[in-house]
Amino acid sequence: GAIGLNGAKNGWYVKAAYLLPNLPLQVFARAEKWRFAVLKNVYNQGADWFAGGANYYLLGQTLKLSAEYSSTRFDKTGSFSGVQGASLVTKDFGTVIGSLQVEF
Questions:
Q1: How many CB atoms lie within 10 A of CB 46?
Q2: Whether pTM exceeds 0.85
Q3: pLDDT digits (tens, 9 = 90+) for 19-59
């Protein structure tokens, strides 16, 4: 039997970024593909995660503003119980993140 968080998993990820030469702007993207032994009561569940965004640097690199959008997709629908209640299901979703980083 598989043990540990979600049992055995196989997967990969790739990440790339490019800092524009004449602007303090960096664009980035990341992709992940995973296969879990068991995830949310689904055996052999697959999950794909894609994200893209940008970092904008101010005051040299002392201040960084970031924006990112990510999308998570599952191969199969699973049902489980959690803090939010019973009869919950896995479903595809997207997330928007904004952040501010200051160096001092």
A1: 16
A2: no
A3: 999 999 999 999 999 998 877 778 888 899 999 999 999 99
What does each C-alpha distance from 46 to 12, 43, 52, 68, 90 come to in angstroms? Answer: 12, 9, 21, 23, 12
- Predicted local confidence at residue 57, as pLDDT: 95
What type of residue sits at position 78? Answer: G
Name residues whose C-beta falls within 8 Å of residue 66's C-beta, 6 or more positions apart in sequence.
53, 54, 55, 56, 97, 98, 99, 100, 101
Q: Kindly state the tokens that stand for 54.
A: 């940008």
Q: Are strands 79-82 and 85-89 parallel, antiparallel or unpaired?
A: antiparallel
- Residues 82 and 52: their CA atoms lie apart, in Å, by 29
Q: How many residues does the chain have?
A: 104
Q: How far is CA 97 from CA 12, 55, 100, in A?
A: 23, 12, 10
Q: Which amino acid is at 24?
A: P
